Amino acid sequence: MPYKHLDKTAIPILEKNIQAKIKWVRKDHFVYHPKAIACLNKFNWIYEQTFFYDDTEDLIHDMESISLIGNTGLGKSSIINELRRTHSRQHNPTYEKYPVAYCLLKDSITGLKGLYTSLLSAYGHPLAKAEALKMSNIRISELEDVFIHTLKETETKLFIIDEFQHTKGRNQRAILNMLKRTMLASQVPFIPVGMPETKSILDMDMQLSNRCPVRPYSHLKFLKFKDDEYRSFLSGYEKFQPFPEPSDLSSKDFANMIFDKVQLPKPHLGETNRRNMVILIKTASVIALRNNHNRIEEEDLKNAQL
User: Fold this and answer.
1) Which residues, other chains included, contact 53 with Cβ-Cβ below 8 Å and sequence gap of 6+?
2) How far apart are alpha carbons 241 and 247 in whole angstroms?
3) Which is deepest, 4, 167, 264, 271, by most CB within 10 Å?
4) What's the first-to-final CA gap in the chain, in angstroms?
5) Is residue 228 in a domain?
């Protein structure tokens, strides 16, 4: 098979013109690195498990869940986007289905109403708007009922709560308690996603931390040059670069050159994140394409900057 160094989705791009190739390079491409695979396998297990509870909605089940944490640029959003892509929402004239719903917590949550407006924003619900909420004079218990009803009506099987660290504040314990209560009442697993401090927030509520634990594979960490994961990610992302010849970005010389350019400043000197790696590879690929090279050459990498 020709072009064994490429992902099957990149092979047709070889026949395109340079503008189409550059457009392809600028797109984000998902690399199934070990931690991403482990997280997605767990998410899908939890997702499929919820179908076994549909016939016994009147019972309270001990639902499984998990939390995904890590500093910025490590790939949390990429993993969540891949999960959502494989369980995309469905729009019809008479109904909408959100198998995997997603909300981004606001950084100004000051109470339970703010919490539920953020959760309802996953569905574009009218009560997700502050003006509508003020005019409605709705109570917290009613907001909870509206949210649970929406979860069931849209057949949501997983609900992702991103930027979970924004629950931190003076109403933190009340917010965590309501999240736990809503998850139990709806029987829909919640997936907290956020910065590393998310774990300490969850640990404030033993039941919630037990239901949404942080596993070793769901704690994304900075990469070091000596880590196998660093070079395997280089190799994985190279598969999406539309060149007829392999660039061997994971070779020792190229990996060293790339690391020198993408490593983080203090206090994380000697470490990097996937975001920087992707930006540099994209930049080097565009330079190589404009130079009409058949692969990313050393000079292309030297000229590439973050």
Assistant:
1) 59, 61, 63, 187
2) 9
3) 167
4) 35
5) no
User: What residue has token string 């292309």?
Assistant: 300
Q: Are 43 and 191 within 8 A, CB to CB?
A: yes
Domain of residue 120, residue span? 34-218
pTM: 0.91
- The answer to whether the beta carbons of residues 233 and 223 sit under 8 Å apart is yes
d(CA 186, CA 188): 5
Statement: residue 245 has pLDDT above 80: yes
Which pLDDT tens digit goes with each residue over 140-196? 889 999 999 999 999 999 999 999 999 988 788 999 999 999 998 898 999 999 999
In a domain, 6, yes or no: no
Helices (H) and strands (E) in the chain, counts: 13, 7
CA distance 288 to 244: 12
Give the pair of three-digit tokens for residue 137. 């004079």
Find the helix packing angle between 252-262 and 228-238, rounded to 10°.
100
Domain boundary among 165, 186, 218: 218
222: enclosing H helix or E strand: none
Half-sphere exposure of 233 (CA within 13 A, CB side): 29
Name which of 110, 81, 78, 76 is nearest 193 in CA terms. Answer: 76
H helix intervals, 121-189: 130-136, 140-153, 172-186
Looking at 188, 218, 248, which one is the last position of a domain? 218
Q: Is the dihedral of CA 33, 294, 245, 12 positive or negative?
A: positive
